[in-house]
Automatic annotation (TrEMBL):
Family recorded in the similarity comment: Belongs to the HPPK family.
Record-linked InterPro entries: Hppk, Hppk_sf
Name of the protein in question: 2-amino-4-hydroxy-6-hydroxymethyldihydropteridine pyrophosphokinase
GO MF term set: 2-amino-4-hydroxy-6-hydroxymethyldihydropteridine diphosphokinase activity; ATP binding; kinase activity
Originating species: Magnetofaba australis IT-1
Domain spans labelled 7,8-dihydro-6-hydroxymethylpterin-pyrophosphokinase: 5-112
Keyword Nucleotide-binding attached: yes
Domain of life of the source: Bacteria
EC number: 2.7.6.3
Described function: Catalyzes the transfer of pyrophosphate from adenosine triphosphate (ATP) to 6-hydroxymethyl-7,8-dihydropterin, an enzymatic step in folate biosynthesis pathway.
SUPFAM superfamilies xref list: 6-hydroxymethyl-7,8-dihydropterin pyrophosphokinase, HPPK
UniProt-listed GO biological process terms: folic acid biosynthetic process; tetrahydrofolate biosynthetic process
Metabolic or biological pathway: Cofactor biosynthesis; tetrahydrofolate biosynthesis; 2-amino-4-hydroxy-6-hydroxymethyl-7,8-dihydropteridine diphosphate from 7,8-dihydroneopterin triphosphate: step 4/4
Length: 184
């Protein structure tokens, strides 16, 4: 099964809404790999409110179109007006975007696969390092300190993490890789 790399962003109550979006993603996939959460200035949004952004990798049997449909439903439930033609220029409760789809049997050998946007590319590269995916020699600048968000009593955002629910449905976070990605 392929892995989706996802971009998450919010500048309306971002700590709360990022946590809610991660909880919704855990309903779609049993394991999430989450980069650190960074505060960034808005791009093409006239509001001065900073964004929180992170990258997430997850496995899903859904097609890209079906997964994007699920993301749009999450955004709508969280208050984003999906019918507004100017929604990309406005502040948002949550923005969920598929950045790329990766087959773990193939190297990521093209820098064009990675997003160019400076508000998400560093987190994608950091997440690739966490997942032991060869990102080639693409520039990896040191990242600023992450921003902490809390989901069900678990602190997320300072370093890359693996998030899962245990058999009792409780959220657990590990700062190590626990996945098939670690296999040779």
């Amino acid at each position: 099964m392929d892995y989706y790399f996802i971009g998450l962003g919010s500048n309306i109550e971002p700590e709360r809404n990022m946590a809610l979006a991660l909880a919704a993603l855990l309903d779609l996939a049993p394991t999430l790999y989450v980069s650190r959460v960074l505060a960034t200035k808005p791009v093409n949004v006239p509001d001065d409110a900073y964004f929180l952004n992170c990258a997430v990798a997850l496995q899903s049997p859904l097609s890209p179109e079906a997964l994007k449909h699920e993301f749009n439903a999450i955004e709508a439930r969280m208050g984003r007006d999906r019918s507004d033609p100017d929604r990309w220029k406005k502040s948002r409760t949550i923005d969920l975007d598929i950045l790329f789809l990766w087959d773990k049997r193939r190297p990521i050998d093209s820098p064009t696969l990675l997003p160019d946007e400076p508000y998400i590319r560093p987190q994608v590269l950091e997440l690739m390092d966490f997942l032991h995916i060869d990102g080639g020699s693409w520039r990896k600048d040191p990242l600023p300190d992450g921003r902490e968000i809390v989901l069900e009593g678990v602190y997320i955002g300072l370093t890359p993490l693996t998030l899962q629910r245990n058999a009792n449905g409780h959220l657990i976070a590990m700062d190590t890789l626990t996945s098939p990605l670690a296999e040779p």
